[in-house]
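FIELD: query
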Amino acid sequence: MSLATIDWGIVEAGLDATGFASLGVLLEADARTALIAAFGESAPYRSHVHMARHGFGRGEYKYFRYPLPGPVATLRKGLYPGCAGIANRWAERMRIDTRYPAEHADFVATCQAAGQARPTPLILSYKAGDYNCLHQDLYGGIVFPLQVVILLSEPDDFDGGEFVMTEQRPRMQSRAHVVPLRAGEAVVFAVNERPVKGTRGEYRVKMRHGVSTLTRGARLATGIIFHEAT
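FIELD: result
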């Protein structure tokens, strides 16, 4: 599947219904293999985080430095316009004044002008016993409301390690979603809030995401976050 074949109408319908939607398989085996092989290197990254040290869970992740790896840079730039259209419609529905430019370079310039200049795409590695607590990737005052995760490993290479999302609706208990992923499949999802149409108009739902405990094998994934970090 290519970026040109993504049906953004279907994607938006999925996001409106559950807060996430599949974009199809966007990374082929050779690109996935190269990203996995580079995890042990230091040059491609600006930061290395061990989750247990910060109470984030167990496992580790690394933020890429500029220039981003080719496939990651291509997807970040190519997915942004479709996501920006949805983000602007969501902002209107939630009565938020913010509007997002059509091109990612212009949005990055806005982030940099506000003091958010560090790239946020990352690669995450989990082994048996590792997990990622429910969280939101905010990083500063400017937050793009959608982000993307792509599974790099083959699903048969591990057990557990499901991508999980929760939503908290006003005055209701939290609802959980388990999101199945194929190797190379990209899923776009809400970073923080999404609009939901109720009987009395639109209201906001808080979203969080994480990864359940791996019980066998190893799982690697890459995350494409569109805003920059302070």
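FIELD: remark
DSSP finds five helices and 14 strands in the chain.
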